[in-house]
Design brief:
By secondary structure, the chain is α+β, with helices and mostly antiparallel strands. It is 27% helix and 26% strand. This is P1 family peptidase.
């Protein structure tokens, strides 16, 4: 399956840094992603799993850190990541009420691989992020199960789909269809080349706020709807302009640059810059969380001492900060461009950006 719909107009490139060959988080060596999508009537949801490497992340942990930009969220596992600065399970994304089932699935998976966990060894820290897909998905059905995590894990590869797939199936973004978005950037730091990739679960924003590469596209679309008062859809679009920003976004940033957990904390915070460029103000009801990890080295579970590679000096981090902001913004745009229209619970419908704006390419060209 192609990661993108090649028939869609190309999303505008963000910034001037070059993208990696895939244009996804899988451009970072070793990173793979898998989806499991539930698409049946009122059930419009799923699970997405990001594996930092092909090995066992409990045995060979990777350095990581998170930033909570606005904490209206129900994720699990962040406390230990903040304390120890490592990941020891794959990263899982799902809907809000699916967190417990997916966390249990992660625990069972880790115990199957390492029966000493919770006995001779310490317990495992499952890491699950969530957004509320209850507008399109019957979230009360508690449809996400352990098997869905296992399927997403088994599906992990370097060909990463975007849009209404996996955990992104039921998500909304700027009153349009949102979901999974991907991007990557190639950077040079002190004469050495590195890759930074981002994957987002985009479920936030109101239409008039939408800004793409500096263009007030949301305001143009809201004005277009206002001008078409006779249309019921236009009246609905106008009504949403007065509602507060709600929803959430999860931003996962990966890089092969050698950084420690403290530096990754700094890097994760720059995801907020990319988010803000799209029009978000991190509203009261929004859970906006970013996590960054490095694949440059691993931290052995059983070790007396840990050998680190030479780390990037703090004064040389700016290219990575820039790549992080650009990649997150690009990934949000990718989620909008890649999504298809979805009808779910009680007939609720989210139109994709392409279905909402048939003349999208012409409109973007006219605003340049």
């Amino acid at each position: 399956m192609s990661p993108h719909d090649d028939s869609a107009p190309h999303a505008p490139p963000i910034g001037t840094l070059a993208s990696g060959p895939l244009g996804t988080i899988a451009d970072v060596p070793g990173v793979t992603v898998g989806h499991c999508t539930l698409d049946q009537d009122a059930l419009q949801t799923g699970v997405t799993v990001i594996r930092p490497h092909r090995g066992d992340p409990f045995i060979d942990k990777v350095p990581a850190a998170a930033s909570v930009i606005n904490g209206f969220g129900k994720s699990i596992g962040l406390v230990q990541v903040d304390e120890l600065g490592t990941l020891e399970t794959p990263i899982a994304l799902t809907n809000t009420f699916g967190v417990a089932a997916v966390a249990q699935a992660q625990i069972r998976s880790a115990v199957r691989a390492n029966p000493q966990i919770g006995r001779e060894w310490s317990t495992v820290n499952p890491l699950v992020f969530e957004c509320n897909d209850g507008y399109l998905n019957d979230i009360q059905a508690l449809a996400v199960t352990e098997q869905h995590f296992n399927d997403a894990f088994d599906n992990a590869g370097t060909e990463v789909a975007s849009g209404a797939v996996g955990a992104g199936r039921g998500m909304s973004c700027f009153d349009l269809k949102g979901g999974i978005g991907n991007a990557s950037r190639a950077v040079e730091v002190a004469g050495r080349g590195y890759t930074l990739g981002a994957l987002v679960l985009a479920n936030f924003g109101r239409l008039p706020m939408l800004t793409i590469d500096g263009m007030p596209l949301g305001r143009l679309l809201a004005e277009r709807a206002r001008m078409a008062q006779a249309s019921a859809e236009a009246a609905t679009a106008k009504a949403t302009a007065t509602k507060p920003e709600q929803g959430s976004i999860i931003m996962i940033v990966a890089t092969d640059a050698p950084l420690d957990a403290r530096q990754l904390k700094r890097l994760s915070l720059r995801a907020a810059a990319g988010l803000a460029r799209t029009g978000s103000v991190y509203g009261h009801g929004s859970g906006d969380i970013a996590l960054a990890f490095s694949t440059a080295y691993t931290v052995p579970h059983a070790a007396d001492f840990i050998a680190l590679p030479p780390l990037v000096a703090d004064a040389r981090l700016d290219p990575l900060f820039r790549a992080c902001a650009d990649s997150v913004e690009q990934a949000i745009v990718d989620a909008l461009w890649s999504a298809v229209s979805v009808t779910g619970r009680d007939g609720h419908r989210r139109l994709s950006l392409r279905d909402s704006v048939p003349d999208l390419a012409q409109l973007l060209k006219s605003t340049r």
